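Q: What structure does this chain adopt?
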Amino acid sequence: MNTPNSFTNRAIALGDGNHYLIRPVQLDDRDRIIELFNHLSPESRYLRFAHAISKLPDDFLDDILDLDYKSEMALLAILSNQSGVEEPIGIARYVTLPNQNICEFSLSVSDNHSAHGVGTHLMLDLIGYAKENGIQEMLGYVLSKNLRMLNLVSDLGFQITNLDDDPDFKTVSLLL
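A:
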């Protein structure tokens, strides 16, 4: 199995005495990713996948778990409460476009933790890792009504543009 060369796991404190760890996704994280998906509301699933989805497809899971940690990377945020119970609360991923130094990102954060900075920390780590791997631009396609995501990427310095042929989506891009 490939492993990331330079990523350092990072623990981040929450205001309630708990903390979460951001680390690369590993092959044995399938059940954690499914658990995270199962804790997303139908609205959050729609905003992430741009259509109603009730189950993660196996090929989607396989793609997330089979990483080379350079041209593709996925980071998982795991909450550890004071009793030692671990709960996946967010995931961020990029995939490099074929024969280019441009990657496309995605982000999901559990509804219970979406206003606690988890998405921001995941994206900052993902951006840093992409830079280290020579990726020159990060882009994404965000539903126009996904105001939380649009605000998050705007705060991170992404440029937001309208798609001429599809008013339901915006393109967001960041030069690295």
